[in-house]
Design brief:
Helices cover about 85% and strands about 0% of the residues. By secondary structure, the protein is mainly alpha-helical. The longest helix is centred in the last third of the chain and has 43 residues, at about 275-320.
């Protein structure tokens, strides 16, 4: 009983801070997100540097494969639906519905991760051919992707766990996990690629290990340490298609937006592939730098989603106690 009262007081304290200082809260939420995503871009650049020593075809293979990594991120963007919904329940001070939403979110993320893994493993080579990969680049890219798809269930689980924490206003934990996994990836890259002599597949294995590390950290935080405000337990799970529909109503448009960008990138790869692997390699390197420009906007918009959800939930709660979302 005492623990529940302490958690409630802490939750109300955080909620009051959001309400009293919205501008400061937006900045406080945005900065960790920007740092975390910046670390991911740093990893991508460092990864290209290590792979680059293997030659232009190796970079081209990773660049082609990077399109499908971005495709995974596009589908995992469905998680913003749970982020928004949890933020609303936080604002409405409805802990039970926030718990149920978090559980639905993790189940959805697990299902999508497994589905993506199975689909990717079956059609890896055909997809790479479709975007213009051929010869040695196709061989390297197929091997790289087949390994990378092993980590898709871990990636989706981590994405939905991250959405749960950001939805309740905790951006520090996700950035700590993301930063730690990124540094681990950077450390493992040269070991797997050069020391063990695995080459391009070594870069893929380093990424999969980093995905597994993120998964393990989120699992520990949510299920063992129970550090989140939401409580994830079978006793709080009540199957609800209505709840799932609400999550998808917000998440699917966000995912489609990313999906269009991903498909556009694949089309560009197809066009640029006409000029050879060196052109693809150059395009891949330039794309990493380009991401730095839009990074602050993504961070602010992600944080804004949580704040708007909290205010919306509080507004509905204040004027309609039944809150039939």
């Amino acid at each position: 009983m005492k623990k529940i009262e302490e958690e409630t007081a802490q939750e109300n304290s955080r909620l009051n801070e959001f309400l009293q200082f919205p501008e400061r809260s937006l900045i406080r939420l945005s900065i960790p997100i920007i740092i975390g995503m910046g670390m991911h871009i740093l990893y991508s650049i460092v990864d290209m540097i290590f792979v680059g020593r293997l030659g232009g075809e190796a970079i081209a293979a990773v660049t082609f494969s990077g399109s499908f990594l971005f495709l995974m991120f596009s589908f995992s963007s469905v998680s913003v639906g749970s982020q928004s919904l949890i933020a609303r329940w936080m604002g409405a001070k409805d802990h039970l519905k926030a718990n149920n939403t978090a559980i639905h979110s993790l189940l959805l993320g697990t299902f999508l991760g497994i589905a993506f893994f199975l689909t990717g493993r079956i059609f890896t080579e055909e997809i790479l051919i479709l975007v213009g990969a051929k010869d040695k680049t196709l061989s390297l890219g197929t091997t790289y992707l087949e390994i990378l798809f092993l980590g898709s269930p871990f990636l989706f689980f981590s994405a939905f766990s991250r959405a749960i924490l950001i939805g309740e206003g905790d951006t520090k934990t996700p950035v700590i996990i993301m930063t730690s996994a990124t540094f681990l990836n950077i450390i493992l890259d040269p070991i797997f690629i050069y020391t063990l002599g695995w080459g391009v597949p070594g870069a893929a294995w380093a990424t999969v290990v980093a995905m597994l590390t993120s998964f393990t950290a989120y699992f520990y935080f949510l299920f063992v340490r129970r550090g989140a405000y939401v409580s994830i337990s079978p006793k709080f799970f009540h199957p609800s298609f209505r709840l799932l529909k609400q999550m998808l109503r917000v998440g699917v448009p966000a995912s489609l937006n990313q999906l269009v960008m991903s498909i556009g990138g694949m089309c560009l790869h197809r066009i640029i592939s006409i000029f050879g692997s060196q052109a693809i390699a150059g395009y891949g390197l330039g794309g990493k730098i380009d991401m730095l420009i839009i990074l602050p906007f993504i961070g602010i918009s992600t944080a804004l989603l949580s704040l708007v959800g909290i205010y919306y939930g509080l507004f509905k709660y204040s004027y309609d106690k039944s809150y039939p979302l």
